[in-house]
Amino acid sequence: MSPFQMKFTSIMMEMTVEEKKIIKRLDKCDFTEIHKYFVDKNEARKALPKEEKQKLKEEADRLQEEFGYCILDGHREKIGNFKTEPPGLFRGRGDHPKMGMLKKRIMPEDVIINCSRDSKIPEPPPGHKWKEVRFDNTVTWLASWTENIQNSIKYIMLNPSSKLKGEKDWQKYEVARRLKGVVDKIRFQYRFDWKSREMRKRQRAVALYFIDKLALRAGNEKEEGETADTVGCCSLRVEHIQLHHELDGQEHVVEFDFLGKDCIRYYNKVPVEKPVFKNLQLFMENKDPGDDLFDRLNTSTLNKHLQDLMDGLTAKVFRTYNASITLQEQLKALTSAEDNIAAKILSYNRANRAVAILCNHQRATPKTFEKSMQNLQTKIDAKKEQLAMAKQELKRAKADAKARKDVKSKSNVDKKKKLLAKLEEQLMKLCTQATDKEENKQVALGTSKLNYLDPRISVAWCKKFGVPVEKIYNKTQREKFAWAIDMADEEFEF
DNA sequence: CGAAAGACTTGGAAAAATTTTT
DNA sequence: AAAAATTTTTCCAAGTCTTTCG
């Protein structure tokens, strides 16, 4: 049974009286034919002749050109998502209570346009009207509508390459850099608060320790039954941790096991400082598994406290700070100036990976992983064979040169030496690739690279070690991080 | 004040595009 | 030139945090 056959009430509601006469139970329906119809349609599109595909692409480009840009403060800026989302079945992630509900088509009558008073106001499609046209320059969105599944607002906003988003991004990292200046004090403070007479403070201090040490998310409370059951730091429940006085030779170990954002599992066994352990025991006393671990704490009181410690400080700043500082430290520790470019890039990826692991950015093992690993191994074996051959040839050439002592045979030795060196370098590169791939099997690097790592750290590293920025950031990423590429020299320090 | 609404950032998977291999 | 592998882009949410409302 497909996941969607679980939840059909919203579809039943959309059916006409006539349809309801024919279809009484959706779970008894056979959908294989309609499924096949869409699969075939997809195939047909793929099999289209070249010219037809070209035409389709041109049409898409035309749409992008006409609707994909706006003028902000006199500059033409790219829009991130310039189309509304099409109707369809809501999937959601993990065990979502609303899975399979019908997502309705967005009509012009649902859409609010936000633009300048003196701009050319976009025309609604013929025969339609916008819900509203407003001129609010205190917000950044260009259009919005309310989506019918969660009843939340969706927005049309600018692309990350825009000046507006770039400046916001820069600000974000500047806040994180300010945290660097006060983090020692804050750490001292929360250690002190572990002993507070007030339970409220103790919980806050332990939670903050987790957020800082383990890069947990804040964990806002969620409306039950509206979304999948996931948690962050403040919303952890007793059932999500287990205490071990001693485990695998370590003392005071906390075993975390819970579903975080997007239902990604967080599993970790962490030795903690003794007062934390004692406090956790206290927090768990006389509670059921389903009870809140931090019953005297929520994200808004935590953030209020953080605001008092530093202007602009919130829980997520710790994630940004710890991610960026980790990248910087790891790059420093792993990079050697005398390495070749491939080895330096491996070092970069490893530093990036350390951050992704800290932030728990996981991915499913790619479907083709095993095979592609095997292919790589085959290449390595072939290269090794070539190398062995080249070694023999060099040996022979040397013997030959020794016997004949002429110019020609000497230059032949040089040639063989060069070949050998080239093959060795190629083998090294392949092995490096294999290592990188294996270590990256279940780690997703993209999110940290895009959202947590101050791009100036990477740019400075590139400049310092002579690695072209294109090796680290692709075109889109370079556009997003244009501000940093512009700004950072090799001396930049986070 | 707490709850709801609003605005904006962060997230992995799937689709599409591009590159490499056969 | 087709197929396979890899990289990039799109998709569609799901979080965080701020503002507004009752």
UniProtKB/TrEMBL annotation:
Gene3D superfamilies listed in its UniProt record: 1.10.132.10, DNA Topoisomerase I, domain 2, Topoisomerase I, Chain A, domain 3, Yeast DNA topoisomerase - domain 1
Pfam families in the cross-refs: Topo_C_assoc (PF14370), Topoisom_I (PF01028), Topoisom_I_N (PF02919)
MF annotations from Gene Ontology: DNA binding; DNA topoisomerase type I (single strand cut, ATP-independent) activity
UniProt record, GO biological process: DNA replication; DNA topological change
SMART domains for the chain: TOPEUc (SM00435)
One GO CC term, this protein: mitochondrial nucleoid
Ranges in coiled-coil conformation: 373-440
Keywords of this entry: Coiled coil, DNA-binding, Isomerase, Topoisomerase
InterPro entries assigned: DNA_brk_join_enz, DNA_topo_DNA_db_N_dom1, DNA_topo_DNA_db_N_dom2, TopoI, TopoI_C_dom, TopoI_cat_a-hlx-sub_euk, TopoI_cat_a/b-sub_euk, TopoI_cat_euk
Ranges of residues in domain DNA topoisomerase I eukaryotic-type: 89-466
Enzyme Commission no: 5.6.2.1
The organism's place on the tree of life at top rank: Eukaryota
Active site: Y452 (o-(3'-phospho-dna)-tyrosine intermediate)
Catalytic activity: ATP-independent breakage of single-stranded DNA, followed by passage and rejoining
Function: Releases the supercoiling and torsional tension of DNA introduced during the DNA replication and transcription by transiently cleaving and rejoining one strand of the DNA duplex. Introduces a single-strand break via transesterification at the specific target site 5'-[CT]CCTTp site in duplex DNA. The scissile phosphodiester is attacked by the catalytic tyrosine of the enzyme, resulting in the formation of a DNA-(3'-phosphotyrosyl)-enzyme intermediate and the expulsion of a 5'-OH DNA strand. The free DNA strand then undergoes passage around the unbroken strand thus removing DNA supercoils.
Family that this chain belongs to: Belongs to the type IB topoisomerase family.
Name recorded for this polypeptide: DNA topoisomerase I
Organism: Phascolarctos cinereus
